[in-house]
Amino acid sequence: MDWEVHQNPERLVKTFRFKNFLEALAFAQRVGELAERENHHPRLTVEWGRVTVEWWTHSQGGITEKDREMARLTDLLLG
Questions:
Q1: Mean pLDDT by 10 residues, the chain (79 residues)
Q2: What InterPro entries does this protein's entry cite (predicted)?
Q3: DSSP assignment, residue 19?
Q4: Any idea where the domains of the chain sit in the sequence?
Q5: In this predicted structure, what is the pLDDT of residue 41?
Q6: CATH topology for 4-76?
Q7: How far from 17 is each of 61, 62, 64, CA to CA, in Å?
């Protein structure tokens, strides 16, 4: 998995790049739908041509297996 681990709090972070804002926004929407379906919600930052997704479990104060699974499922949204 090519996600970075950041600290304070410990979390999985990845920036996805797109051709324009609309493609980035559409991807963020798919991540949001995944999050609702799985009842586990990331931090999303949407900018022109990119979306940064951060997964961690607030109640655990860091990364759990659920976060790793959500990162894997997020990657599949590109395919």
A1: 94 98 98 98 98 96 97 94
A2: PCD_sf, Pterin-4-alpha-carb_dehyd, Pterin_deHydtase
A3: S
A4: 4-76
A5: 97
A6: Gyrase A; domain 2 (3.30.1360)
A7: 28, 25, 25
